[in-house]
Amino acid sequence: MKYIIFNWKSYLNLKETISLSKIISNLPSSKKFKLVSSPNNFFNLAIKSRFPKNTLATQNIDFHGSGANTGSMNINHLIENKIKYSILGHSEVRSNFGDSDTIVKIKLDLCLSHNIIPIVCVGETKDVYKSKKTKIFLKSQINKIFDKSTSYNEVILAYEPLWSIGTGLTPKIDEIEEISSYLSKILKNYSFKKINILYGGSVNLTNISDILNLRNVNGVLVGSASTKSDFIKYFK
Ligand code: 13P
């Protein structure tokens, strides 16, 4: 079973979100894929009734709890509304809202204590990739986010090279496998009930089969392609 996570970012309005949700809800159930949809945070509740249990994600959470926190995305509301997943540390959240690895770590701990499955995004810049320092970079990023003395429940780690997001560029297929296998190796130094490593960045109909065939890749996190009905229909 491979995870397929649709990150609709802020691409779709409510009508478009509902129409895509209808296509997803009409797909036959599959043993090969576990589909999780992450609509813009405003729309989770509007589409929830169309989705089976535990198949929706928020695109972020906040670490401010209940109370006088204007603008907060309170994790308690995910629990109250039975939303099981949250993307953490997406590169656009890091660049638009200043989330650092330290903040991602705080949010990760919050997910653990609230039984939310985090989809933690990591990835290197083009410069790091070009200077062949991807592994060193990712090791340090993981070290800042995860704690060796914590026992984590299920965690999804999405390897999303920043230079690949929204550009049409991807690492070579054997590089994706090599990095995923490396991530799987270094994550053995930490304790997880379940850990899945996903690839994200310019996944589309042309490259998805090759990526999903990789042994060490447990799924994909897809942005713009996942807003297209043709792409969704791949999973039927
Ligand atoms: P694209 O698939 O549009 O490159 O975006 C990837 C991404 O950011 C998924 O979280």
Shape: globular
Radius of gyration (Å) = 17 Å
Indicate the mean pLDDT: 97
Number of strand elements: 8
Uncertain parts: none
Briefly summarize what is shown.
The protein has helices spanning 14-25, 44-47, 75-80, 91-97, 101-114, 126-130, 134-145, 173-186, 208-212, 229-232; strands spanning 2-7, 33-38, 57-58, 85-88, 117-122, 151-159, 191-200, 219-222. The chain is of the alpha/beta class and 236 residues long. 1,3-dihydroxyacetonephosphate (13P) is lined by residues 7, 90, 160, 165-166, 200-203, 221-225.
Structural description of this entry:
This protein has 236 residues and is of the alpha/beta class. It contains ten helices and eight strands. α7 runs parallel beside α8. The chain is globular, with a radius of gyration of 17 Å. The chain starts with a strand and ends with a helix. The mean pLDDT is 97.
Any descriptors?
236 residues, alpha/beta, 8-stranded parallel sheet, binds 1,3-dihydroxyacetonephosphate
